[in-house]
Design a protein that fits this description.
Structural class: alpha/beta
Distance between the termini: 47 Å
Helix content: 55-70%
Radius of gyration: 23 Å
CATH architecture of the largest domain: 3-Layer(aba) Sandwich
Shape: globular
CATH superfamily of the largest domain: P-loop containing nucleotide triphosphate hydrolases
CATH topology of the largest domain: Rossmann fold
Largest sheet: 5 strands, parallel
Number of strands: 5
Strand content: 5-15%
Length: 355
Amino acid sequence: MSWFESIIDQEQPIRLLKNILLNRTIPNALLFTGTDGIGKRTAALVFAMACNCGVEEGLSAADPCGRCRSCRKIQSGNHPDIILVEPSGPFIKIKQIRDICDTLSLKPYEAKLRIVIISNAQAMNPQAANALLKVLEEPPERTVLILTALQTSDLLPTIVSRCQHIRFSPIHREKLKTFLIEKHGVNAEDAAIFSAMANGSMTKALFMIKKNSQANWICLRDWLLNNIGLEKTGSLSLEPIIILLSFAERLSKNKEIIQDSLEIIKTYLRDLIIYKYSPEKIINKDLIRKIQYASQKIAVKSLLSKIEAIQTAQKDIRANTNLRLTLEVMMLRLAGTGFKPRSQGLRNLEYEKNH
């Protein structure tokens, strides 16, 4: 299997990258968008290997050999001309971009093409974004910038317009399930749960099977559903508001599990909808009796509204809003209190605190 083909379920973006290599039409800047953990960074590194591969037949096939000195140095992270920029804390700061500018003012040490990979480019603060824009307006010779981001709307339009955009999609659930079974020996039932909870992210699925057993995930799920009342009745409106806000506070103190927790709740809500039409397709099969009861008690419109509340919270958390306040608002919306935050108010809190 070639290096590009090892990136699972991304046939279209890989085909575009191979065409760029075959036609020798490498742009000054590329933008890879899509959710976390689906292969954007891996594709950027493989592309860097292909651009600098020392084996001619490897390059002519638009795929790196993986064996030459250049490929091995890139794989090990020791190539001086392959530069990776990542957020420092919640943001990519202007100093990081200025350091890159200083480096780009010099010729590459040994690479045919110097590659700068800016991972999670949506984390650039405004000053950093403007500094990068100047680089894109006057791109250095023998240099390619590859930005990865969740979506184009998270970046300045002027940055997006100067990049060739390639979109990566979430990995299909069945392909992720098959990969976990065949490559990691996960049994079919566990693989179905992990692939559903991973929401199309290979990184998240691998984290689940390496760092947590299924039992831990079930305990987390049961704790979440029990604390917010979904497991009992399917409706949070029966829970006192003080309990819901207290739960939001406790969850906000466990930052490492927040996004996973929201995915678990969202998956359960989806099961309540799916059960109405295709009960055999639910994910939480061990909770089928509770899902059956709760599904009968709550309307589809209400469930969709709750899922939207979680999705809004996830987006706000990625935008570095005030965590506790975001979760409190989400819990109130899940409970159907009719509470609606003022437009953009939450999203500005954390940004203002950091500037």
